[in-house]
Amino acid sequence: MFDAKCRNDWAAYFEALARNRVFYEIRRDKADANKILSTYYVFDSDPRVAGGRIWAVYTEGMLPAPEPQRVFEWAKLKWVAESWRPGFPDMIVVNPGSPCEAFLPGAPPQSYAWTRYATQSAGPSDEAALRTLRVGGPLHGPVAHGLACGAHLIVHQGRPWNALAYHGHGYKTERRMLRKSWGVTSHQGWQEMQGALLATNGADSQWEFALGLRRAIAQDVDGCVETGYWLDAAAQVLRRRAEGEVLLTSDGVTRTTPFPAAETEARVKGVQQLIGRITRYEARMRADGILGEGQYVSSADAWDLGRASCMARWGLSTRYCALPEAEAAVVEAGLRAARCYESWQDFSAAFILGRCLQFDNEKFGSWYQDMVTVHRILMSDPASPWLNLPFR
């Protein structure tokens, strides 16, 4: 847009604007109270405009830093064009105060010069894409590293991977997503969920038992663990535990209550089925170049840590947390990831496995394929944080 403006090529400017998400400020109190949409809009003033009133709109990379009471929604440029009506400001200002600022007349017939580009464009793409903020987003250091740990989901949505000051799909949509998908409706709820993800308590305990057992066996045999040996070892450990374990407590030595045989065998069967699923996913990931030959996933903690990086951004987009809290959570996600894994490739494979174990059910459908696409982008694009930031 800036280049087009410098060339005085307004056709190219409007076409670029139409391909971007256009954000506009809304009243948070009205949005929280679920008032009708017409009460949301916030109009600004600008002494350069006759009458002083403007409707300020922003492209994603030019949004103001998050403030508690300033929140934004987004729409296609076509929606902005069609939403203008008498009583609105006569002038729409794109990215006010920036080098790519532009003044667009809101009312017809003057608006015809730009509205036709809005109606001709399909609007912003939802395809996976690596996008980077060159100004306003960290490119190096702990915050950038933590943000890169959440890149699977952010790149999948085509959003800037290093935008900590995240607005996502807009204030109301982000709040709805956190409520429906995570049960988060408050600052306290966000804190609890963020803490659980950082503590990696959200992953299935069976996953970590199975993966941890293979990890321990691999250390003992100093090499590849045969699937049959892994299956037998899991059965032996579970049956031994079912007999009751001797524990040293503050009250002395105690033995846990034995499990019924039928319950034990059901656990053995469940874990062995899980091991089969893990090995099949890993075989597919080797075929797709996500894992190298002979490599395996050591832990599924990346599934929680990657989402923890995103949860920090979601907390900020919904104003359930402030910028310092989000930044601290992102940094912590990066630190914990670096303690658990050796490389971005290891981290990525673990994230994909966790996602598939939770949602894909061995269909190798979009839950898997979408992440394969993102993995390849992040492991090949010269601008990728995974190629420019050390994992440790």
Give an account of the 3D structure.
- The protein starts with a helix and ends with a helix.
- It has 3 domains: 2-120, no CATH class; 142-203 and 301-388, no CATH class; 205-287, no CATH class.
- The protein has helices at residues 2-6, 10-18, 28-32, 77-83, 112-120, 142-148, 151-156, 171-182, 187-198, 205-221, 227-242, 261-287, 301-317, 323-340, 344-359, 366-380, 385-388, and strands spanning 22-27, 44-45, 53-58, 70-75, 91-94, 102-105, 246-249, 252-255.
- The strands form 2 sheets. Strands 1, 2, 3, 4, 5 and 6 form a 6-stranded mixed beta sheet that branches. It has a two-stranded antiparallel sheet with strand order 7-8.
- It is of the alpha+beta class.
- The protein contains 17 helices and 8 strands.
- The protein is 52% helix and 9% strand.
- A hairpin with a 7-residue loop joins strand 5 (91-94) and strand 6 (102-105).
- It is elongated, with a radius of gyration of 26 Å.
